[in-house]
Amino acid sequence: MSIIILGIESSCDDTCAAIIRDGILLSNIIAGQEIHKQYGGVVPELASRAHQQNIIPVVDVAIRSAGISKSDIKAVAFTRGPGLMGALLVGASFAKGFALSMNIPLIAVNHLHGHILVHFIKEKENNAQQPEFPFLCLLVSGGHTQLIVVRGFLHFEIIGTTIDDAAGEAYDKCAKIIGLDYPGGPAIDKYAKNGDEKKFTFSIPSVRGLNFSFSGLKTNFLYFVRDRLKQDKNFVVSSRDNLCASIQYTINKILCQKLQKAVEQTGIKEVAIAGGVAANSALRSSLKILSAKNDWNLYLPKPMFTTDNAAMIAITGYYSYLNKKFDSLEITPVAKYFTL
Fold first, then answer.
1. CB of 10 within 8 A of CB of 80?
2. Who contacts 234 (Cβ-Cβ below 8 Å, separation ≥6)?
3. How many structural domains compose the chain?
4. Rounded distance, CA 54 to CA 258, Å?
5. Which of 66, 186, 206, 209 could cross-link 27 (Cys pair, CB 3.0–4.6 Å)?
6. Residue 181 is part of a domain; what is its CATH number?
7. Are residues 147 and 292 in the same domain?
8. Model pLDDT, residue 133
9. Is residue 224 part of a domain?
10. In 10-62, which ranges are E strands?
11. How many angstroms separate the CA atoms of 11 and 15, rounded?
């Protein structure tokens, strides 16, 4: 009998629902929230209200697009956290109500766990190239930057993490400094294609081991732009492409150096990347070069699976279901990071 999982993701500003059957993706629906662009970032209260409006139609479309009925669903998986508490509560409440009404298991999913397991999503039979265990995963998003040894579908070991800000946050804040729209990562990636990555030099922090730091880099970028504007009020306009290329080069250099160090320390040459920053074209190109040079087996997720989506929650729910890892209706969301 087929195992059909409904996945729900509502950790930030996208309301998402997906259906997976036996590991194969049948539907993946996302309702975004354009309103946040005018504020330069996500407004939590507006996000939670939009989730309330979107959750029922999004789930309905996901079920109908998958060509199934709700009675076919064997379990519902939802994002427990980390994320915005109000947004998480909407997804969790719907998932609990659905599970209770259908008398099916409830599965709480760590959002970061989901990002990693996108590498096991199949869009049709036997079409996915999947990493072998153990593999190294560089998880890079707006809220987290981590190096993780993945030993199994539900077995993770964090060997490096940011001691302050995440790489994705650095992209967004640097973009905001030079007047680019939110989210800043895609905007920097776009303009960097026409810039000189060696035009400006920014500081690379000295952090021991496999940990990361991006707070100092953001400050360095802010002061650099401020000082140049004092000399030339049109500096940002005339140097936009070079600024984007240079800050992107610096952030990605930090990520690649730490990843290479992790491979050397662990001896693991199965390497994957996940999270929103995994969509960055320059980072993907740099990793391809590194993997060819060092004989890694590199796994890059499709860009559609790098940003927040419910397919990653559903696939995690699928493997949790196989391991009979279910949760009580008493479980509550967690806004901050919690252990993998």
1. no
2. none
3. 2
4. 39
5. 66
6. 3.30.420.40
7. yes
8. 97
9. yes
10. 15-21, 24-31
11. 8
Strand partners, 20: 5, 25
**Crossing angle for the helix pair 167-177 and 215-231, to the nearest 10 degrees:** 10
Residues 132 and 119: beta-carbon distance below 8 Å: no
Token pair of 196 as six digits: 């000189």
Rounded-to-integer distance, Cα 313 and Cα 111, Å: 7
Antiparallel, parallel or unpaired: β 297-299 and 15-21 = unpaired
Each residue's pLDDT tens digit, 75-130: 999 999 999 999 999 999 999 999 999 999 999 999 999 999 999 999 876 666 89
Does 330 fall in a domain? no
On whether the CB atoms of residues 313 and 9 are closer than 8 A, the answer is yes
Question: Residue 240's closest CA among 248, 250, 230, 231?
Answer: 248
* One-letter amino acid for residue 17 of the chain: A
DSSP tag of 34: G
Looking at the fold, whether 108 and 149 belong to one and the same domain comes out as no
Q: Are residues 205 and 317 in the same domain?
A: no
Start-to-end CA distance of the chain, whole Å, equals 30
Query: What kind and span of H or E run contains 33?
Result: none
Q: What is the pLDDT of residues 303-330, one digit of tens each?
A: 999 999 999 999 999 999 999 999 999 9
Q: How big is the chain by its Cα radius of gyration, in Å?
A: 20
Q: Tell me: do 151 and 285 sit in the same domain.
A: yes
Q: What distance in Å separates the CA atoms of residue 229 and residue 26, rounded to the nearest whole number?
A: 51
Domain identity same for 289 and 313: no
Give the domain range for residue 314. Answer: 4-128+305-322
- Do residues 295 and 174 both lie within one domain? yes
Q: Any bridge partners for residue 160, and if so which?
A: 147
Residues linked to residue 107 through DSSP beta bridges, in sequence order? 77
Distance from C-alpha of 75 to C-alpha of 279, rounded to nearest angstrom? 30
Residue 329 placed within a domain: no
Q: Is residue 205 part of a domain?
A: yes
DSSP-derived secondary structure for 274-340: ESGGGG-HHHHHHHHHHHHHHT-EEE---GGGTSS-SHHHHHHHHHHHHTT--B-TT----SS----
According to DSSP, the residues that pair with 199 across neighbouring strands are none
312: closest CA among 1, 48, 14? 14
Whole-prediction pTM: 0.93
